[in-house]
Amino acid sequence: MAGMTTVLTILVGIAMLATVGVLLAGILGMAGGSGDSGRAQRLMRWRIGLQFLALGLFAILLTLLKR
């Protein structure tokens, strides 16, 4: 059980960092004025997916810690 919570904690951290990375890439792309709307949309979809993954893993982690 302790090993599983450690792995989930690490995975949550990685998912959160990936979300921030994609968010920053999108912000920098908009600030640079590249105007590539297709890239901006792909980054938005990735960010939403990574947020969903992070929240899902976090919910599982909380469930395991409650037991």
TrEMBL record:
UniProt-listed PROSITE patterns: HIG1 (PS51503)
Alphabetized UniProt keyword annotations: Membrane, Transmembrane, Transmembrane helix
Domain of life: Bacteria
TM helices/strands, residue ranges: 7-28, 48-65
Residue ranges annotated for the HIG1 domain, each copy included: 1-67
Keyword Transmembrane: yes
Coiled coil location: none
The protein's name: HIG1 domain-containing protein
One of the Pfam families matching this protein, by short name: HIG_1_N
Record keyword Nucleotide-binding present: no
